[in-house]
Amino acid sequence: MNNKIVLSVKNLNKIFDKNIHALKNLNLEVNEGEIFGLLGPNGAGKSTFINILAGLTTKSSGDVNVWGFNLDKNPRQVRASLGIVPQEVNVDPFFTPKKLLELQAGLYGVKKKDRITDTILELVALKEKANNYTRNLSGGMQRRLLIAKALVHKPPIVILDEPTAGVDVELRKRLLDSVKSLRNIGVTIILTTHYLSEAENMCDRIGIINKGNLIALDTTENMLNKIQTKIVKFSVSKKVKLIDNVKSQIKIIKNNEKELIVSYEKNIINIQEIIDLVRSQKIDIFDVQSRDPDLEDVFVKLIKN
């Protein structure tokens, strides 16, 4: 992956009236061509951060550079380098997608010959609906139209704020496919989301923000590897007697005539030792199901700490 830094944030603070400290010394960098996930519970500061980049909120202090432009010195160039897809669907019901994108391109000063309206409509799978009134589009199509609107000025960075909040599974998949196709044409993507499984499937790196603080920043893989706990479920022919040395290394969730469920730390005990113990008691194992940690585990652990 190319390591050109396209967004650099140093010691970013935002204090609202009444001393509400929404962002506290936020430091992060986003690389060109990556999908960067910004996760956090409601009120963590994700939207404040996006609003600062979008020019909707002024920061209290700190330094922000986007695509080589400084937010204080070149606010217009910063805005031109970003395409921002908001959470709320806000498209004019009396325009067609094609007309809406042409209008948006005009607002950005994109000359007629430089417009890529058809390409964008194809990218977000709306080419068939190019000339239908927006009010007749489904909710999911309207969401994809928001992504299209953010692309008219060919920004190198696209920010998606909770793009799949409140949408059904099928639609979420369509939206995420659109995001991946953007990445395939070289766009850098910053994604805020509540859905941890979404971040796990989509993002190269993840920053977790809580109460205005960045509490973790790493590759998705490293974050998942940090948690060593695994849960394993054995379907067995009779109850397993657990001997002391194994008992001290595992946590018993369930142990009866039909199943044994335990959680254990990968770095302390090996699953094979548990299997050997069961077999040594002449007990048949009909099935073994193991669950690796997911981002949910990482998230809960970090927020607790």
Report on the architecture of this protein.
The protein is about 30% helix and about 30% strand. By secondary structure, the protein is α/β, with parallel strands linked by helices. It has two domains: about 5-225, Rossmann fold (3-Layer(aba) Sandwich); about 230-290, Ribosomal protein S6/Translation elongation factor EF1B (Alpha-Beta Plaits), CATH 3.30.70.60. The chain is elongated. The two termini are about 30 Å apart. The model has no long low-confidence stretch (mean pLDDT about 90).
How would you briefly describe this protein structure?
The chain contains 11 helices and 14 strands.
Largest sheet: 6 strands, mixed
For the record, what CATH class of the largest domain applies? Alpha Beta
Strands of the widest sheet, in order across it, are: 6-7-8-3-9-10
Instruction: Provide mean pLDDT, rounded.
Output: 89
* DSSP, total strands: 14
